[in-house]
Amino acid sequence: MEFREIEEKWQKRWADAKTFEPDVSESRKFFLTAAFPYPNSPQHIGHARTYTTTDVYARFMRMKGYNVLFPMGFHVTGTPVLAMAKRIAEGDKEIYEIFKNIYNIPEHIISQLTTPEKLVDYFSKEIELGMREMGFSIDWRRKFYTYDKIFNKFIEWQFLKLNEKGYLKQGSHPVPWCPKDNNAVGSHDTQGDVDPNIDEYVLIKFKFGNYYLLTATFRPETIYGVTNIWVNPGVNYVRIESNGESYIVSSDAAEKLKHQMKLEVKEQIRTVDLIGKNCKNPMSGEEIPILPAGFVDPKNGSGVVMSVPAHAPYDFLALRDLKGTSFESYSDRLIQVIELAGYGKYPAKEISEKMGVANQQDGKAEQATEQLYRAEAHGGKMIVGKYKGEKALIAKEKIKQDMLGEGKALLIYDIINGPIYCRCGTLCVVKRVEGQWFINYGDEGWKEQVRECLKQANIIPKKTIVEYEYTIDWLKEKACVRASGLGTPFPFDRTQIIESLSDSTIYMAFYTISHYLKDVDAEKLSPEFFDFVMLGKGDAKGLSAKTGIEERLLNSMREELLYWYPLDSRHSAGDLVHNHLTFLLFNHVAIFPRELWPKQIVTNGFVLMEGKKMSKSMGNILPLREAIKKYGTDVVRFSVVSGADLSQDADFNPTMAEGIASRMGSIAMLVERCSEFPADVNSVDRWLLSAIHKKVKLSEERYKNLELRDIAQDAFYGAVNELKWYMRRDGKNRKVLREYLEYLILLLAPFMPHFSEEMWEKLGKKEFVKGSDFVSIAEWPRHDEMKIDKVADLSEELISETREDIENIVRIRKAAPRSIYIYCASDWKRKLYSMAYKEKKFDVVMKEAMRDDRMRADPDETQRVLQQLIKNVNYLSPLVLTLRQEMEALEGAKKFLSRELNADVYIMPEEKAQEAHAKKARQATPMKPSIFFE
Ligand SMILES: [Zn+2]
Q1: What is the structure's pLDDT at 615?
Q2: Residues in a beta bridge with 679
Q3: Residues 601-626: tens digit of each pLDDT
Q4: Residues 883, 836: contact at Cβ < 8 Å?
Q5: How far is the CA of 240 from the centre of ligand 1 (A)?
Q6: Please, are residues 651 and 643 in contact by the beta-carbon 8 Å criterion?
Q7: In whole angstroms, what is the distance from residue 118 CA to residue 88 CA?
């Protein structure tokens, strides 16, 4: 098949007919969006997963009769585009190589992409072309870029609203930071797109001579259980001076702390001058020893650790590891601080021993730590100290505040999922920025509403709900501006730019009106304008007088917003749950009334290339447009959504792609030849119709949870197998075949729209649709319950299994039979079968069977058959054919069986068996006839 030709033909026809450019109408609407792309490189096949999932869904809903809007824009906010343009301008070899070798961009074009505007222009066109070639049913009229003036006005308005609600804050604030760029960093600025997570550490001061050892901990409440201090003999320590005090920390920690406090590094400290000496616990005043431990990471916290062996597995293990050294005498001391249900006095010891953790280097130590940390945080109760009896989590906060107030501790921040590197290659740190603006996602009242919003939304897959809940709990302040980058200037400090995760939370609303604003002067888009269009505040007349925008236009925009909003479905890859998708909930809750909150969020997995993650270093990136050229759009579309369950990673490989293309060819051939078939009636006809109506019925159910894999597998691979079986069984009815193909093409249309349009046209399907010939907007098929034929289904199952059984016997006997006798089980056995299916237990069924005259007449035989049935009781089905139906089915397939097995075939009830076959014939059970060869 000439895929490319078919694709271009239908893409042009859709565009000419404006099939995917919906306006406000009387019909029910469905508005869905996928995360807009960041145009700093071309798309590869991995990008196709989310967009294809969204498009399949959009096409399905359209066929269900909805007026569907699927828009697209481009996200250009932040520094990556700037950085990329700069690297090209500097002639960066690596970038040139990637663009040239992976994406086949000619060198003379690369060398022109030296400004952010040119870069964005080139790659957004490239991405748009790819999306058009993929046949995505996008309304391109509504396209915008996040640096468009009109969009800037919208984001400005959003931030004014956030400020009105008190959700914007300014202050000294820890942010993830690139020391080289002197700029805050978010997930879009880091290598591998990792979102840096910041958490606070408490640095507790342990007096050591005239200095303090600064130990970093997440659990200040365990200060009462400290038995010693850990330093790592293999690490460089330094003495720093800050605020008139001297502290000892690792030299790596000193580097990090510079960004959060004023300090001076005074001198190196040798670990031999520390280990074996004592320091003082600030809480108890007790003298405790300083001991060596290899697990202490100089890059983590302060590089000095307080040891609480009763509650921290690492500390327990490190102490145990001291056995046999000169520090052995310290190794048995444990002090309980927290009481925890299900554990004894020393939970860290218990869990380490239970999990069989070998030593402090064992990977299981981390698992043990996490598990215990979580358990004690949620269920632990203090049994010592000032807050005895309080929950550990509450005591932790109080003890922290006490120590900070008494000058016994400091607060610092660290990236807890580090090390994370900036795109420039520098290690990211935490910087305390004065006057930093942030969105306060830590606001409890706000969180409470977001939890409600989450509850009313449909989350697919369901299992991700907990991830949203966790993120809502965990989120705190988020820095929302950067010193540089593309985007919207921050309205309260125009030297700052709103960063990329903060300007992409409610932009879906902007799609509803963006196409009206193309010719409107951005300066007219005052906050009152958006108050009216987005929230219905004020009146069109007054606003028109004020802004000079026509009243009619204002009303149209308001109408459009109200028609399309709320968003019916949001789509993205699963990695955005922890930031973007949760921010989306927060911001909708903050700005829009409850009835406009998002109704559904769907996340999906990634695409692997022949089982491996795609990466530049692996050299296995397949650019999307290249894949389309090579395999055809519909094959690519089908591959990325049919290969795995929604949340799993799908795998793309050429063999599978070729298999899809060849099956499409088989379907196409039948469509072409369908009318040449005679109108012969055969028992297999009913089965074929039953199969397609079952498919239709099932897929409708499966779309509710977007089980695209199951729908696709069943509709496509299942159908090809069924059609093959139909032909093999001498199915020849053009009417039946045509009905099957019509339904099949409708089912395939969301997945393979170009192929389906072509087939639809070949079938001459015009009367099927109202107003247009496109299958893309044809009515979604309704199954006919009357055509789902259980007897036909069971009959074909019987025929195909009987054929297989016979083949297996032939294989074992290694001799081909001349005649095959097939004996079907008597009806009394079917009665017994149903009893066995219902009651499952031998004794119960046997008792019941003895009430039946036929079975009571021959109890030995009844018992024998029942034993046979009970042995396979888990495989019995709720429904079996009667003797007459079984005979009819096999009789109808006699010619088929005879031809396939190359032998004469005789079919009869077991009672009619001749003397020599009688014993064998009695082995027959329902749906499993007995077979005799001659
Ligand atoms: Zn950097």
Answers
A1: 78
A2: 733
A3: 999 999 998 888 887 777 788 999 99
A4: no
A5: 26
A6: yes
A7: 11
Angle value at C-alpha 430, between 429 and 436, nearest 5 degrees: 135
The two counts, helices (H) then strands (E), for the chain are 35, 29
Question: Each residue of 864-883: pLDDT tens digit?
Answer: 999 999 998 888 999 999 99
pLDDT of residue 680: 84
| 3-state DSSP assignment of residue 604 | strand
Q: How far apart are CA 113 and CA 96, in angstroms?
A: 11
203 Cα–ligand 1 center, Å: 28
Q: CA-CA distance, 756 to 927, in Å (whole number)?
A: 38
The closest alpha carbon to 432, from 244, 655, 171, 92, belongs to 171
Q: Is the pLDDT of residue 187 over 80?
A: no
d(CA 561, CA 24): 9
Q: How far apart are CA 419 and CA 425, in angstroms?
A: 12
Residue range 143-158: mean pLDDT, rounded: 98
585 Cα distance to chain centroid: 17
pTM, two decimals, is: 0.83
The CA distances from residue 559 to 27, 58, 568, 596, in Å, are 14, 22, 17, 14
Determine the distance separating the centroid of ligand 1 and the alpha carbon of 79, expressed in angstroms. 10
| pLDDT beyond 80 at 766 | no
Distance 180 CA to ligand 1 centre (A): 5
Give the pLDDT score at 835.
94
Q: What is the 3-state secondary structure (H, E, C) of 195-235?
A: CCCEEEEEEEEEEECCEEEEEEECCHHHHHHCCEEEECCCC
Distance 422 CA to ligand 1 centre (A): 5
